[in-house]
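Researcher: I'm comparing several assemblies side by side, and this is the next one on my list. It has 1008 residues spread over two chains. Same procedure as the others: predict the full complex and return the structure.
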Amino acid sequence: MTLPGLTIDPAAATPVYRQIAEGIQRALHDGRLAAGQQLPPTRDLAKQLSVNRNTIVAAYDLLVEQRVATGHTGRGTFLVGAAGGDRPVNPDDPWLGAFARAVQGPGVGNLLTIYRVATSHEGISLAGGYPAGELMPVEPFARAMEKTLRERGAEVLSYGPTAGYGPLRETIAAEMSRKGAPCDASSILVTNGSQQAMELAFRAFVDPGDAVVVEDPTYTGAISALAALGARVVGVPLDDQGIRPDLLKLALARHRPRVMYVQPTFHNPTARVMGEARRREVVAIAARHRCVIVEDDWAGDLRFEGRDLPTLHALDGGKHVLYLSTFSKKLLPGLRVGWVVAPEPVFDRLVALKQIEDCGTSPLVQAALHAFIASGFQEEHLARVRSAYLSRSRAMDEAIRIHFPDGARFTRPSGGLFGWVVLPDSVDGDELFTAARERGVLVGRGSLFHVSGGGRNTLRLTFASSSEEQIRSGVKVLGDLLNRRWPKDRAASRERDFEAVPIL
Amino acid sequence: MTLPGLTIDPAAATPVYRQIAEGIQRALHDGRLAAGQQLPPTRDLAKQLSVNRNTIVAAYDLLVEQRVATGHTGRGTFLVGAAGGDRPVNPDDPWLGAFARAVQGPGVGNLLTIYRVATSHEGISLAGGYPAGELMPVEPFARAMEKTLRERGAEVLSYGPTAGYGPLRETIAAEMSRKGAPCDASSILVTNGSQQAMELAFRAFVDPGDAVVVEDPTYTGAISALAALGARVVGVPLDDQGIRPDLLKLALARHRPRVMYVQPTFHNPTARVMGEARRREVVAIAARHRCVIVEDDWAGDLRFEGRDLPTLHALDGGKHVLYLSTFSKKLLPGLRVGWVVAPEPVFDRLVALKQIEDCGTSPLVQAALHAFIASGFQEEHLARVRSAYLSRSRAMDEAIRIHFPDGARFTRPSGGLFGWVVLPDSVDGDELFTAARERGVLVGRGSLFHVSGGGRNTLRLTFASSSEEQIRSGVKVLGDLLNRRWPKDRAASRERDFEAVPIL
C-alpha cells in the first residue's frame, strides 16, 4: 500500500516529515485521499519515499496532533472524517470508544499527567504552577468569609448573576483603572480561574480547523484548550523582547487566524517580559491583520523588580484585546476565581458560554473574596509575597550558577513564579526529569510547552512555592545529575527557542 | 432568485415549513446548494412555492436553529460553510463580527434572557429554578465553613485534584450506594453544578453535526449546551410514563446518536416521573442502539410523595449510563457543586475536559460542603424542604383548581420544584407571560423548553421558592388574566405534548 503522487525534496528547508504531512493534507484537500481512509503502514511509505521509518512516524504523529488523522497503536492511522458518522470505533467497547474529537488525540492524556506533576507536593517540587502555600493569608480570608456568611449568607448561597458578583466586578474594574487600563465593571466577567477565562475566549472565536497563533513555547493549558476545540495551533518563537514580529507577521498573513494568544508579562514558561516597544508593535501588527489578541496577564501583580509596563489591553484601549487575569497566583488558588475583560459584542457571547458551561462562579466565594480585598489585606499580602519571591528567585539563580554545568543559561526573572533554564544541547529533559523525580525533585519539562516540537534541553523551575533551602537542595540534585550524566558537553547551549522555526 | 427543484406536498403529514427546510438540506447535501450561498428572499421563495411568506420564514428559522444557515435581519440568510474561512463578517465591526459557530444563532441571546427571568426576585416569581431561599441552612453551613478553614485552610485554599476533593467524592459515592446505585469514589467527578456535569458529558461525545436525542420538551440549559456544540437536537415527546419508546426507537434508528439526554425523575419542565417498566425499556432500547444515556437526576432527593424508583444508572449497572446530579437544588445553589458518575474510559475524558475548562472546582467549597454533610445537617434540611414543598405544591394545585379556566390541566407533582400546566389551545403563553409580568408575577413559558416548536399553551410554575400565600396570589393573577383575555375557549386542552410530532 503506497501513496502515489506523494513526493519529497530532501534538500528543501522544510523538514522531510513536515513535507510528507503537508503532502497528505494536500491530497486530502484535493480529494485524492478521503476522510476515513487508512494511511499506508509506516514501513511501506518509508520504502516508497526512501526515508527512515521514523520520519514517517513523525509525519503521522504531526497529522494526529493536527487532528487530520487518528492513530491507534497497532491498528493503523486513519484520516479523520468530516462528520460524526465516520468516527473510528473502538473494538474493545463499541459504545464508549468513539469519543468526540475534543477528547481524542494524545493531548488529553498528557494534560492530566502534567497537572498531576504540577500539583504534586511530594519531595521538593520545582514543577508546580502555584504560589507559596505557607504565605497564603488563610486567617484574614477566614474572617472575610465569616463576615460574608453572617451578613449576606442567604443571598450568596443562592444563584447569582452569570457575569459575576457585582461588588467584586466593581473592585476588579477599579484596580485595573488604577493601574492605567480604564475599564468598566460591566465589561468584566468573573470566571473559575483564568483557565476558564481563556477557554471561553477561545470558544467564542475558534471553530474546528481554525488557526490560532501562540508564542512557542507557551502555557500547556492553552495548548490543551485549543486542541479540544480542534484549532490548528501555530507557534511563533520569542526573542528576548517577546514574540518575534517578523515571524508573527508571516504567521498572521499565511494563516489568517481570528485570535492570537500571548502572555506579555512573565511569559509562562520562559519568564520573559515583552518590551514596551514590542508591545506597541504587536498591537499594531494584530490590528493590521484584524486578529483579536487574547492577553493572559496571570502574573501581572507579581513583579518584584523593575517597573510595570502597560498591558496590550491598555495600549489598544480595550477595543480588540481580551484581557484575562486571576486571583489564583497572586492570592489563593483554591478560590478558583479569575476574570476576563472584553468589548461589548464579545462580552455577551462570553457570558452566554459561561452560562452554558456552569451557570456562573460561586457567589459565596466571590463575595468573600470581595470582602477580603475591601479589608485591605490583598495589598499587604502582595508586598509580602513579592519580597519572598525576590529572595527565592535570587537563591535559585545563585544555586544554578554554583551547581549547573557552564553551558546552562538561566536569566533571573523580575516577577512571576518560575525561571527558565536552557541546558546544553545534548541534555535530554525527559531523562533528567525521571532521574530527578527518583531523587525527590520535580521539575517542569520545557518540551511540554513547545507546540512545534523541540525544547528537550529546557526546564521550567518554580521558585515561588519552595523555601530557599529547598531550592538550593533541589538545584544541587539537578546539577549533580547533569554533571554526572552529561559530563562531556560543556559547549554553550544553543538558544533554540530564539531561532526561527518553520511555521507550518 | 428561486430554488429550482424544491417542491412541497401540502397534503403530506410533515408540515410544509419542515418540508422546505428538509428540501434545502437535501440540496446542500447533494451539492445543488453550496455552503456560504445566500438563500432566496423569503418573498421570492414564497411566490415560487405558492405558500405564505411566514412559512418560508419558519423554514429559514428552523435552518438557523439547526445551524445549517445563519440569519441576519435585513441582510439575508446564508448557508453555513464547513470551514472557518466561510464565516460571515459583521460589517459593523469586521474584527469582532465573526464569532465561532458555538455563539452564533438565536439560542445565545435567548439563553441569557431566560436566565435573567429565572433568577429574578422581582414580585412573585413562579419562574425560577431555585429552591426555597428562606429554608437554606445558612448557619450550619457557616459553621462547617469555619471549621474547614480553621482545620485545613492552607490545603483547601490551594489547588486540589481536578476530579474533586477526595472526602466529598467518598461521601457522594456512599450516598449513591446507600440508595441502590453502587459506585466507587474513583468514578465521581465533582463539577460546578450539574450544568457543567452535563456540558462535559456532551463535549465528550458530540462533534458538530452529531445528532443527540432529548425529551421534548426538555431543560433549556441542555438545549443551549447542545446548540453551542453544534449538535442536531432530536426531540422525542413524552407520554405519562416518560419518553415514548416507539418514537425513541424510531429516532435512534434514524439518527444514530451517540448520546441521549433524559431526566427520568421530576422531568424539567413537565415534572413527570418515568415509570419503572419504562425505565427498563428505555435502558434496553438505548443498549440495542448502542446509545450512551446521560441521566440528569437533578431532583432525585426532592421526592415528597411516593417511593423512589431505581435510576437508569442503577438499572444499567453504570456501564453505559452517565449519571449526574447536584447540590444546587436540594441544598445550596451558591456553592455551584454538582457531580457526574461515569465508567472509566469516559471518566478520564471528562476529567481532562474539566481540567481544560477550569482546572477543578474550588476545594474550599467542596471541603466545606463535605464538613456540612458529615455534620448530619443535610438529612435534617431535606426533611424540612420536602415537607414545605409538599404543602406548597398542594397550595398551587388548589389555587389552580379555583382560579384557572376549566380547560387547564395541572397534575400535582410528587417531587422537584415545579408543576406543569397545559392551558386551552388558544392561549398564547408569550402574551400571558408579558401581561403577568406587568402585574408582578413571573412564570416559565413552556415554549422555551420545546425543541421542535409548539408548547405555546404551556407553563412551568415553580412552587418551591414562594410562600403558600404568594403562590395563591400569583395563581390568582394568572387565572384572572386567563379568564379575562381568553374567556371563550373553555374546551379541554389538547395535550400536544403527549402526541407524536414528526422527528426530523
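Model: For your comparison table: Chain B has three domains: 16-104, 120-134+379-498, 138-375.
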